[in-house]
Specification:
This protein has about 700 residues and is α+β, with helices and mostly antiparallel strands. The protein is built from 12 helices and 36 strands. The strands form 7 sheets. Strands 5, 6, 7, 8, 11, 12, 14, 15, 19 and 20 form a 10-stranded antiparallel beta sheet that branches. Strands 21-22-23-26-27-28-29-30 form an 8-stranded parallel β-barrel. It has a 6-stranded antiparallel beta sheet with strand order 31-32-33-36-34-35. Helix 4 (about 305-315) runs parallel beside helix 5 (about 355-360), helix 9 packs parallel to helix 10 and helix 10 packs parallel to helix 11 (about 565-585). The structure holds (2R,3S,4R,5S)-2-(hydroxymethyl)piperidine-3,4,5-triol.
Amino acid sequence: MIHLRGEHTDVVIDESFGVPVVVHWGAPLGEVDPATIGRALARSLVPGALDVVAPISVVPEHGAGFQGRPGLSGHRQGGTAWAPRFQPHAVRSVDNGVEVVAVDAVAGLRLACTITLDEVLTVQLMLINESSSRYLLDSLLPTLPIPAHAAELLTFDGRWTREFHPVRREWASGAWVSENRAGRTSHEHTPLVFAGTPGFGEWHGEVWGVHVAWSGNHTLFAECMPDGRRYVQGGELLHPGEVCLQPGQSYQSPKIVATYSNGGLTPASWGFHRSLRSQPVHPRSARPVLLNTWEAVYFDHSTERLQELATSAAALGVERFVLDDGWFGGRRDDRRGLGDWWVSPEVYPDGLGPLIAHVRGLGMEFGIWVEPEMVNPDSDLYREHPEWALTTPGYDPVLGRNQLVLNLAHPDAFAHVFEQLDAVLRDHDVAYVKWDMNRNHVQASGSDGAAGTRAQTLAFYALLDALRERHPTVEFESCASGGARIDHEVLRRAERVWTSDCNDALERQTIQWGASMLIPFELMGAHIGPSRSHTTGRVHSLAFRSVTALFGHLGVEWNVLTLDDGERARLAEVIALHQRFRPLLHSGDAVRFDPVLNGQIAATQVYGVYAADRREALIVHATLTAGMSLLPPPVRLQGLQPDARYVVEQVPLPGAMLVWAASGIVLTGTQLATHGVQLPWQHPESGMLLHLRAL
Ligand code: DGJ
């Protein structure tokens, strides 16, 4: 038995079976002999079942009698080796964990399972073909058992402009399954699930969260078996024939990243946040407020106009100017030009130099948009190399946003794109790259005609890694039509995500609420758009748009040249407000409080950030829709220092009239958690900001 101890979590692993079995993943156990845990939880044989109890190991085996979905699925020619049963082989310590190796001499397979526990529990698997014939792998899915009393699930629905929408589900018998074939993390199938004790909330209940850290196709599966046991299984979804292991070859699964808390969802999500914050790539400098040109000018580029926009932005306090789509090749609209990563002489006759010099002269950084994994049929690149498109010969390719995926697993295509992007970064003073990916995969085949999404996903990582290595000071943003590529593997190589193409503050409230369960605010791109949202047509006050975008890596995506003096002054105030609270927002712990619901829809929601030492906090109370009662209940803030005395002040939002009469009141952490504070009536689609300081 192996006992891993984390700060708030213990894991006990039985390695004697062959494939390791997680016997306990949950609350710290104190001083205990791990073998006792194994004995305490040992299941007896039952009538009407097999004469063995097959464990839910990290790769549950049909060959051992497991009746759920096997962790490994595959076969050799003729259908053999389809139901392996591994035997113990070796165990060795690794940083914060253990690697357990098991072999199946009959099937000719070796399995290495690495399990570590730090801020999160991580499981990664490697399968090696040790036979002299090839092995066709269908799936290798790390699996974690979940205790029987976790009978409720929290999953996430989504689509373009509506990512990360939380959905509660009873987890009775049967399975919940999510399968993503988009070739990117996807809007629709967020690779994240929480299981918990019935009714678990932000600050109560036991919660187990599982995330598939992968930017390609994935599957996530949660089953309550007829024998009462539960497990969550997740990993890469492979197309037929996508992985064929020749003798000696191996396959490595994506990592499953998991978190546990016995104090609710908010502390559980800190595991995910702390894990990301411990990554070498995680940004450690102040996140520059940026202006993104997309909703400001779309494809209507001109050096003079963009220089004016930059001048105007700098005067507002913007610190980074990001030139979005439309600067390259023949890209005058979204029907052409992708793949031609050279500055368009048509719109930039003197190159980008004058614009960049202007931006830098204003004291701002310069950022640039690219979409390296794509090609338009109407592009020089495609005309020269139609064979580099990731399509299946013999079929008319399915277009998405008029574009095809470029086969980055083709070495020449990879080298070509690398050289072009390298030249852009080498020849220009660029601090930041917004890396977009705007279509799903369909019939994505490599040169051999076999499914190529896995190879493409690995090539995407390799290209980004190579560019980062060549340009170590450049930061990268992961964007995919908004939030279709937000996961912990891409965040090993990106400093920001674009959370959604929807800048509508009302929609954003829910999107960011959901996203905050996986990523901290400093990684979450959040922009103030025009008063009338481009994607929904809704109109919101600057105050609501601001209080919403404040909780993220702030940006402005608005043609600020169209603002009158009053609007400019208020926007500058908002930017200054963000800059004032930025150190707290980007280093503290994100907190959420159970929302007031109308059915499954939040009518009001309260969330914010607590300083790591709990001496300061910034909290938003957002009214999303008319609630059932005229006044929402008092805001109760759990998790502060019980005896500390906090001054609670309203922070006025530019242009908002709302006044809280009790602003300045002093209350202890215990009082804030128990009776809390009653805020005044707010109309739907508005927010209020509170600042707390310990005396
Ligand atoms: C989709 C992105 O999400 C937008 O922000 C913008 O960059 C467009 N692509 C540009 O084509």
